[in-house]
């Protein structure tokens, strides 16, 4: 079963690269710094391939349009590139951030960046239990701590700190699973809804995230991109499960996302004032994706409701994408690749807004501006 991911964070995560140089034999003094990617299946580049988990995308036709692999699945939950891949290319990064659990995530390969994201992962440690195994954000930061030590060995203490703090971008795309695969599924995932109000659950999420971001800051992270949770009530899975019409979305899921998003924006403002030298960029994924869903024809799509790859119900939104799934021929015309995740065509539009868009969608600066700070 593929993990249910918010469109949302989706965005943010992807934005991740910054100008930098390679030192101590890593290359010339010009180039790009590392892209450190944290999050869920929206930005997982293959970590779940190395876990015993029910949430995997290393089966066809996932990756059918991913040129770097010749159309073979890599563990990305889409038909081609994630937003993070696209952003990196646009900023000139010569190589995709390597999955932390991959065998080649060693030596100089990590100088381009490392991807810690995991399908099914969330802010809360209980999130995603229905998938058996996944990497929550706490574990992802534990892994970055290991990477941080490797940078010291590769570059030396002083240059490593400079490379991490000034040349690299930290992208966090997470939060949707905390609702879809935790709070809204109390029976399946031992969620908290039966004993905890939405306000209390979101308080817990924000408090956990505050501690997690502060921990990254203590490990010398300074340039952050944080995506809010997208309109998770509008994904094909939710629309199919709740037997909605094409233009309807699940009200409760979207209200929870918006409630969390208000608190997230306040948290990032708090951290920008509190953690000296850091900049926390807010990616308004909710409004960006809702614009895409509402006005999909304007962007060249023919549907923002039906999954290109999937089975079950009017919107092919029940059974995750796999070898036996129905597969559309016009993949570039679908906003959603599968019941939960955007297509590469949608990711391209989202990435462009993150790279060069106005403060309506990304603030206080866009990703190209963040890279050059």
* Low-pLDDT windows of residues: 1-31
Individual helix count: 12
Strand content: 5-15%
Q: How are helices and strands ordered from N to C? A: HEHEEHHEHHHEHHEHEEHEH
What is the CATH superfamily label?
SGNH hydrolase
Short description:
Helix content is about 35%, strand content about 10%. It is of the alpha/beta class and about 375 residues long. The relative contact order is 0.17.
Descriptive notes:
Residues 1-25 form the signal peptide. It comes from Gossypium mustelinum (Cotton). Belongs to the 'GDSL' lipolytic enzyme family. InterPro entries: GDSL (IPR001087), GDSL_Est/Lipase (IPR051058), SGNH_hydro_sf (IPR036514), SGNH_plant_lipase-like (IPR035669). The chain has twelve helices and nine strands. With 373 residues, it is of the alpha/beta class. Helix 2 (83-90) crosses helix 11 and helix 3 packs across helix 4. The protein starts with 6 loop residues before the first helix and ends with a helix.
């Amino acid at each position: 079963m593929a993990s249910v991911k918010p469109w949302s964070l989706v965005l943010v995560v992807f934005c991740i690269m910054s100008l930098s140089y390679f030192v101590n034999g890593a290359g010339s003094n010009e180039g790009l710094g590392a892209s450190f990617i944290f999050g869920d299946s929206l930005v997982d580049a293959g970590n779940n391939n190395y876990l015993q988990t029910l949430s995997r995308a290393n089966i066809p036709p996932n990756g059918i349009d991913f040129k770097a692999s010749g159309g073979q699945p890599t563990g990305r939950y889409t038909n081609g590139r994630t937003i993070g891949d696209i952003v990196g290319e646009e900023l000139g990064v010569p190589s995709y951030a390597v999955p932390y659990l991959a065998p080649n995530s060693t030596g100089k390969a990590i100088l381009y960046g490392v991807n810690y994201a995991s399908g099914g992962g969330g802010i809360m440690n209980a999130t995603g239990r229905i998938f058996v195994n996944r990497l929550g954000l706490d574990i992802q930061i534990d892994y970055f701590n290991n990477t941080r030590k490797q940078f010291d060995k590769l570059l030396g203490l002083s240059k490593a700190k400079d490379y991490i703090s000034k040349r690299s971008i930290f992208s966090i795309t997470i939060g949707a699973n905390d609702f879809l695969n935790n709070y809204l599924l109390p029976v399946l995932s031992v969620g908290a809804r039966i004993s905890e109000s939405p306000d209390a659950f979101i308080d817990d999420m924000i408090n956990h995230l505050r501690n997690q971001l502060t921990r990254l800051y203590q490990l010398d992270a300074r340039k952050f991109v944080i995506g809010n949770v997208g309109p998770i009530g509008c994904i094909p899975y939710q629309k199919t499960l709740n037997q909605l019409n094409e233009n309807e979305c699940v009200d409760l899921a979207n209200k929870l996302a918006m409630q969390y998003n208000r608190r997230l924006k306040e948290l990032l403002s708090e951290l920008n004032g509190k953690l000296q030298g850091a900049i926390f960029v807010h990616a308004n994924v909710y409004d960006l994706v809702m614009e895409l869903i509402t006005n999909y024809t304007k962007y060249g799509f023919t549907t923002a409701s039906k999954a290109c790859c999937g089975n079950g119900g009017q919107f092919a939104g029940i059974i995750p994408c796999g070898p036996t799934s129905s597969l559309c021929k016009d993949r570039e015309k679908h906003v959603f690749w599968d019941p939960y995740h955007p297509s590469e065509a949608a990711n391209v539009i989202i990435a462009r807004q993150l790279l060069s868009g106005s403060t309506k969608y990304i603030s206080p600066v866009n990703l190209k501006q963040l890279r050059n700070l």
